[in-house]
Specification:
Largest sheet: 9 strands, mixed
Helix content: 25-40%
Number of strands: 11
Length: 385
Amino acid sequence: MGKRVAVVGTGQTIHKSHRPDVTGQELIAEAVQKALGDAELKISDIDAIVIGNMDHFEGINYVDCWSVAGSGGVMRPIIKLTTGGTTGSTLAIGGYHMVASGLFDKVLVIGWEKNSESDTTGAITTAFDPIWDRLVFAGAIAGLAAEGMAYKTEFGLTDRDAARVSVRDRRHACNNPHAQLHKEITIEDVLESPMLSDPIHLLDVCPRTDGACAVIMASEDCAEKICPTPAWIWGTANRHTYTYVGDVNLGQIDSMKYAALDLFGKAGIKEPRKEIDVIELYQPYSFAGIIWIEAMGIVPRGKGTEYIWSGATDMGGEIPINPSGGVIACNPIGATGLIRCAEASMQIMGKADKRQVPDVKMAVSTGFGGCFWTDMLLYGKKKPS
């Protein structure tokens, strides 16, 4: 049996659309120093480092070597992981296994992106097959629009319904000092914003962000000595299901459905709606806030819209989703999934300040990317058996 693993410290930069005040290495160092400070550790206490970004964005192939001035990786085991949009959550899952395997006791996990120095849309477009996908899949928007339209066609979802999700997350972001966007919006603001690709308006979708996140994971041998209330990782699951966009079952994200069944099955979660207290959902556009909670099993298929309008996912509701403001308010892509991990862990640790959900015992974070892939992690206040 592997060792039990917990998150014992987190750190984030102040995320902005453009951080010309720092280099990439300095951006990474900012998050690392905050995570070390949160855990009251020194870099000399760290046994190994896992780092990643969307390497084709900034054009840095060996980020594990290039980053050492900021990561603290000099003369220390360090590995790069990169899986497209799921990079941040893959880093979290990789860090977990590095510790659970018994290889290392304390691992520093780092995700970062300087989108202002990259051609994001060009990079995403060239990641897809040049014959079958590239001509109709320009950047990130096209695939999301196809998913949103497929669900609209089947269930009669309106643009107003989806806008309710953007309004929620932008309101939540006002409580998060790390979020990029701190202005509340209305449903009319969303509907009147420019149409990017039907049915997605500008305010339905995430921004581009410069930012970094660092998370320290520790084994059961030392976690409780470092942190009085560590966030224990109860399980991980992922489904990187498809290679070609044409294979995706649009309108019902199968990768999340099967990852959730796997994760909740491992942890003995039978009724996720009753047993999970908060979710940090990697949700890059508003329609996903409805479609994907159905795939996760929070509500039956076709009932997501009703659940969102009920206020159940707002702060104070049955299961607050994205108390941080989520991806709609901040998206440094290589860090985004790891930010979800940090925010879910902070909810367990009671460190989420103004965005804290009361009495959180179980939390979920997710990652999304690639060709409609899903990563998931489950956290608990109680140590798993």
